[in-house]
Amino acid sequence: IHLDQVLVEFTCKNPRPSLPTEWALCGEREDRLEVLKTSTFALVIAPGDGQLVASAGCGTRLFEALEVGAIPVVLGDHSKLPYHQFIHWTEAAIIVPKPRVTELHFLLRSLSDSDMLAMRRQGRFLWETYFSTSENVLNTILGSIRTSIQVPAAPIKEEPAHEIPHKAGKLAGTDANLADNGDLDLGPVETEPPYASPRFLRNFTYTAVDTYRTWNRAPGPFHLFPHTPLDPVLPSEAKFLGSGTGFRPIGGGTGGSGKEFQAALGGNVPREQFTVVMLTYEREEVLMNSLERLNGLPYLNKVVVVWNSPKPPSDDLLWPDIGLPIVVVRTEKNSLNNRFLPWDAVETEAILSIDDDAHLRHDEIMFGFRVWREARDRIVGFPGRYHAWDVNHQSWLYNSNYSCELSMVLTGAAFFHKYYAYLYSYVMPQAIRDMVDEYINCEDIAMNFLVSHITRKPPIKVTSRWTFRCPGCPQALSHDDSHFHERHKCINFFVKVYGYMPLLYTQFRVDSVLFKTRLPHDKTKCFKFI
Predict the structure, then answer these.
(1) Which domain holds residue 136?
(2) What cofactors does this protein use (predicted)?
């Protein structure tokens, strides 16, 4: 009735060896994969022997289906799929008892397109992460053993920051443009020196029961990326970041006090700072002005200047004294990927990635930091962009026009978690970083792809800002027409690498209405803002 195409072969010229109660594989592997590439579902029939919970033939059939993106339909609920104690297979496969075989067509027809896409993506994630190479298989075995005996995973790698010596000049003044905050308090005055985010190793009481969700959320950060199994899959669930900073269990705060919104940082992590990471290339005057504008910024831990130029700073260059450390990091080569290296000098979970010509007021930065603290697994920033489908050329386009909808936030002025710097630099496919180096472009698009791919959430845009360039600064490369053509190419190439378009649209934007609303100290009554 539905004109569904179903292929069932009962004869085979070249059957593969199999167990007595097992359905044999037919033909060569290449021939089977060609059929599966055009298939939405692949039938995997469990052995007839009820005491035989797994077999080589079923495993081969399962892995071949996952490899090409077909959804395995396992007939026989007594069978145990690989690592079933860790992997939630129902998110990637359909498992049906054999007596219900007559209902199989109806069950498959009940799946929506979005469900099938999610299952195929999850299946591909499982294949790429745990079964695709001998190295991944070995890591999976070791990871399962490590989890069973509750041994922590190895610490993540941090990039050593080779500091360039520099001398500070006079105390930085207050930029009149930044003082335009009215009578708005930016937050409590920090009287203590900069402090780092707490570092956590995985708790030794973290048991295999707790890993059930961690292995099975799709797609995790390691879809298409080999990794050590049981490393965190979703930032919101991760408990470990090794020797670096990590997504830590959130403790209780001091909320409900009725204080003014500006009188306390609030939230569930009431004591926290962020690090500014600023990429620069041979624009010393612009850089000095940008650093001076950071003077007096609340909750700023330090500034890490990524010196992307092969030439060292001028000997007579006087750096502004903003009352906080300014670490100037020497890089091995001029690469936009250096923006996202997980420098060991960054000691906070929160990173504000900002261009050296970005011009943001302190209240805007503070508001962005507060919003990020409510969505720590997202990119939170100011300039929004979106991708669009070109029907005529059947390809993706990058669009910077003003729009109510967006799918990217440029990392020239955005908050993100340090963990994503680790993923970007060491886990994301090298082909993406190579293209960024080739075009000297698109590193912000690559980071948006990565985070949306991991979280399956769009970024968050704050305020109505659509640009952030400082007035009077030299014209950036983004004004060149070739800049947009290259970004079109980047988006289409990244889609090929990921195998799908991970960016998600959103019309959600956070504006500073509550940020500018004062609640009297003597009022404990709750207010609702709509």
Answers:
(1) 29-148
(2) Mn(2+)
